Amino acid sequence: MAADKVFVPEVIEPDEKLPADLVALRKFAILMDEALPVPGTGRRIGLDAGLGLIPVVGDIVSAILSAWIIAGALRHRVPLPQVMRMVFYVLLDLIVGEIPILGDIFDFTFEENMMNMRILMKYRNRRLPPRTTSQIAAVVAVLVMLIIVIGIFSLAGILGAVLWLIAQRNR
C-alpha cells in the first residue's frame, strides 16, 4: 500500500448517532434477513425466508416490504446507480424466489435487505437534509407497482412452464 493512502475500515455508526428512520430501517433489515439463528449452523434467517414459503404471494409481499429500504435510500439521497443496484437485488430475490424449491433455498441464503442496508449506510449523503416523504412518494409508488407487475409476470411464467411440462408428459 502506498504511503500516501490510508486504509479506513468500514465503520458502523452506533444507533444513537443515526437518524431515527435509519435505526428503524436497520432493525427492519435484521428482522427480514437475520432474525433467528438456524440451530447447528452459523446462519441466521428472517421473515423474508418465511414469507417466501407462502405460495403465490409470499415473495411479492416480501419484495414490497423490502422496498422500504429503497425508499430510505431515496430519502437519504443515495446516488442513482446504487439505488438501481438495490432495486436489482430486490427484483432478483422476487423472481428467483418464485421458483418452487429452488426459490425457497435462494430465499434462505440471499440477504438482499442487509446488502441494501449496507449500500444505504455507505452511500447516503450526510451533507444534504433528507428528502421529505412527499418528494419520494411518486417514485416509491412506481417501484411498488413495478414489483407487483414483475411478480405477476414471473408467476405467470412459472405457471406457463408447469403447464407446458404437464402437456409434454401427457403426449
Structure description:
It is a single chain. This protein has 171 residues and is an all-alpha fold. The protein is built from 7 helices and 2 strands; from the N terminus they run H-E-E-H-H-H-H-H-H. It has helices at residues 20-34, 47-52, 58-75, 80-97, 102-109, 112-123, 133-169, and strands spanning 36-37, 44-45. A two-stranded antiparallel sheet has the order 1-2. A hairpin with a 6-residue loop joins strand 1 (36-37) and strand 2. The protein is globular.
- CA radius of gyration is 19 Å
Which spans of ≥5 residues are poorly predicted at pLDDT below 50? none
The coarse overall form would be globular
Series of H and E elements: HEEHHHHHH
Number of helices: 7
SSE topology sketch:
Layout: H1 20-34, E1 36-37, E2 44-45, H2 47-52, H3 58-75, H4 80-97, H5 102-109, H6 112-123, H7 133-169
Name the features.
globular; mainly alpha; 2% strand; 7 helices; 2 strands; two-stranded antiparallel sheet; 171 residues
Summarize the structure.
With 171 residues, this protein is an all-alpha fold.
